[in-house]
From TrEMBL:
Lineage: Bacteria, Bacillati, Actinomycetota, Actinomycetes, Bifidobacteriales
Protein name: Monovalent cation:H+ antiporter, CPA1 family
Subcellular locations according to the entry: Cell membrane
Native source species: Bifidobacterium commune
Keywords: Cell membrane, Coiled coil, Ion transport, Membrane, Sodium, Sodium transport, Transmembrane, Transmembrane helix, Transport
Regions crossing the membrane: 6-24, 31-49, 55-72, 84-107, 113-135, 156-177, 183-208, 220-253, 273-292, 312-337, 357-381, 393-416
Length: 692
């Protein structure tokens, strides 16, 4: 029971951290989670129990490393391999050696092997720790690729170095020859096992999909289960489970291109969502545990009369300084052979080279892997005695993690300020236009007399999207346009509220028609409120409160409607509102509401509250939506054509995904851009199926 309560408390803190981070975006989420962990540690009712250290290696490191390897941009990884590998291997072992020797020299009470273990644990970096700063700081593609590749590979080198150091500390003996032999076997054995497991998994999933046996449940469960199986299998063969999981993540793909149709697309969306939640929960749990560990480690150190508090704090500052200095020098020296692309000369002392070195230095804070490794330090050595200075070692590692996170949090936005979001928006918009244009060309080639009535509306919708994107691409301020769009939704909501109040107050109207009008208005209000909740305007405290109120209002509307329908059917099934009649009233109300917004936009174009071109752009969107609604008034015709149009839509999405894959393979777009384009198509596929 205490373990269950502990899990609930930690997960609750992780959820709370996600809410708090939205109100203080300049503070990275890991720092918030560490603070919450400290608060939990001081609660008198919080359960305090010891967890098995080996559990951290399997439960946290295996899935996190798999996910990191699985989602990495492999093309960029290979391009930056000559930079990331020296940092991942050389810098990791260099940090282990320098930190270990320095710590043992200034604090001899810590055995050399234990000091090396701390240095090895401080080798791995945590790119996830600074992901929450993406809106405040930015990296170049090369810097991002190097940091990601380093974070992936130095996890493995750091874990291997840590395990050998702990083995020497526990047994009290160390053989260089045996260590080298074990390292080679562990390294290459782990890589080989991971690759073989990845190839087998790809073959199995391809076969299962062809036979029609794959379901969303089996696919997601297997994807979650396999990293643990690979890790435990490798450990059973006494080879590196970490490298096996990394190699497996780089090899397996699960048909993530999504060309297999809407079912595969839906599965990919669910898979991404599950892994996103799991990754956030695991990373958050580790940082919450870090906060929980800080008071205990501090209390144990403070009560230890053999350790001076000032000395302990000084050691933390010294280790942090050494880690940062080693990293800066290593990055700077690795950049020495590279030449300036404009002058062709080496530029070691130029401000830009120093700035890039500082970005790479502070962009590699310590985090999840470091703390997980430190938690695996055994409580006793081979003789049965307590592991020397275990609490102090964990406290030092925790202090270095906090300091490097603070430096990343406050230094990176100053050194690498965020790029103009509108510029990035314009670039992705151009790519989207090209991809949509190719889709239209492919659909046009498939038009014949039998499918013309179904394909032409889909082609027209694509052309409308292209026209809107082209109009947005020049002199476009996404924030200002978004403000206008949200204001227009509020105008639409005000109009529908007015129609709803009039319907409720009109006692002369036929009761059946009055109920139809009220039902249509309430349904449309739900649609508008849902659109407002998902609007991407800049988040403020007021908007957060408004969203909460909107959700409560929407839930109340849905509950009232459900009770009303149930009561009507229970009282008399024949008196229940007919959906076809509601359709007429709903479309009529929507058209009237759009007409009111169109009139308002014409008026705003004469004023100076909004830019003329933004009003014209949104006006075109509303006019197009109004024309589409007006063409749907014939329910019989719409019902006859709708299935064929839906089939063409699904076909067009498959065409889009194929084109995206072709653009990626030809080098026209990057993997991250392809991922964004695919995500849009996946969502549209699921929405299209929801309409059926």
């Amino acid at each position: 029971m205490p373990i269950f309560e502990l899990i609930l408390c930690i997960l609750g803190a992780v959820v709370l951290s996600s809410f708090i981070s939205r109100f203080i975006p300049k503070i990275s989420t890991p720092l918030v989670q560490i603070a919450l962990g400290v608060v939990l540690a001081f609660l008198p009712t919080f359960p305090h129990i010891k967890l098995d250290p080996e559990l951290f290696m399997v439960l946290f490191i295996a899935p996190l490393l798999y996910l990191e390897a699985h989602e990495i941009d492999k093309r960029m990884l290979f391009k930056t391999l000559k930079f990331s590998l020296p940092m991942a291997i050389g810098l990791a072992f260099g940090t282990m050696a320098v930190v270990g020797l320095m710590l043992h020299a200034v604090w001899p009470v810590i055995p050399l092997a234990a000091a090396f273990a701390l240095g090895a644990a401080l080798g791995p970096t945590d790119a996830v720790a600074v992901s929450s700063l993406s809106s405040e700081a930015s990296f170049t593609k090369q810097q991002s690729g190097i940091l990601t590749g380093e974070s992936l590979f130095n996890d493995a080198s750091g874990v291997i170095g840590f395990q050998f150091s702990i083995l020497a500390a526990v047994t009290g003996s160390f053989s260089m020859a045996n260590a080298t032999k074990d390292f080679v076997i562990s390294f290459f054995g782990g890589v080989a096992l991971g690759i073989v497991a990845g190839v087998i998994a790809n073959g199995v999933f391809t076969l299962v999909r062809r036979l029609g046996w794959e379901t969303m449940t089996t696919r997601i469960l297997m994807e979650l289960f396999l990293p643990f199986l690979v890790f435990l299998g490798a450990e059973g063969f006494h080879i590196s489970g970490i490298l096996a999981v990394v190699a497996f993540g780089l090899t397996v793909h699960f048909d993530l291109n999504g060309i297999g149709g809407p079912n595969v697309a839906r599965t990919n969306i669910v898979s991404n969502s599950v892994w996103t939640v799991l990754s956030f929960a695991l990373n958050g749990t580790v940082f919450i545990l870090l906060g929980l560990q800080l008071p205990d480690a501090m209390r144990a150190s403070w009560l230890n009369h053999n350790v001076r508090n000032v000395e302990l704090v000084g050691i933390i500052l010294l280790v942090t300084l050494v880690v940062i200095a080693i990293r800066f020098l290593w990055v700077w020296l690795i950049a020495a052979p590279t030449r300036d692309p404009e002058s062709g000369k080496r530029a070691l002392l130029k401000p830009r080279s120093l700035r890039d070195a500082m970005v790479m230095t502070f962009g590699g804070p310590k985090g999840t892997i470091t703390l997980s490794l430190m938690f695996t330090i055994p409580y006793t050595v081979a003789s049965g005695a307590a592991f020397p200075m275990r609490d102090e070692l964990i406290f030092i590692a925790a202090g270095v993690i906090v300091l490097t996170l603070l430096l990343a949090n406050f230094m990176l936005p100053l050194i690498a300020p965020a790029e103009d979001t509108d510029k990035e928006f314009g670039k992705l918009t151009e790519i989207t236009i090209e991809e949509l244009t190719r889709t239209v060309q492919e659909l046009t080639n498939r038009v014949n007399d039998d499918n013309r009535h179904a394909i032409l509306p889909v082609i027209d919708s694509y052309n409308n999207r292209i026209a809107r994107l082209r109009q947005r691409i020049s002199m476009f301020d996404s924030q200002e346009f978004e403000t206008l769009r949200i204001d227009a939704l509020h105008w639409e909501k005000e109009y529908v509220h007015k129609r709803l109040d009039e319907a409720r107050a009109d006692t002369q109207m036929d009761k059946h028609h009055r109920e139809l009008q009220i039902e249509a208005c309430e349904r449309m209000l739900d649609q508008i409120m849902n659109a407002l909740r998902h609007a991407s305007n800049k988040k403020t405290h007021y908007r957060a409160v408004s969203q909460i109120r909107g959700r409560v209002h929407g839930l109340r509307h849905q509950l009232i409607m459900a009770v009303r329908r149930a009561h009507s059917k229970f009282r008399n099934s024949d008196s229940a509102l007919n959906e076809n009649e509601i359709y007429y009233y709903l479309r009529s109300t929507q058209i009237s509401a759009l007409d009111s917004v169109i009139t308002r936009l014409y008026q705003e174009m004469q004023g100076d509250t909004y830019k003329h071109e933004y009003c014209a752009l949104l006006l075109r969107d509303y006019q197009r939506a109004r024309a589409e609604l007006a063409s749907r008034n014939d329910i019989k015709t719409a019902a006859k054509i709708a299935p064929q149009i839906s089939e063409v839509k699904h076909e067009s999405y498959s065409i889009e995904l194929s084109i995206i894959q072709e653009m990626l393979e030809s080098g026209e777009i990057s993997r991250s851009q392809a991922k964004q384009l695919r995500s849009n198509v996946y969502v549209m596929q699921v929405d299209a199926e929801a309409e059926l």
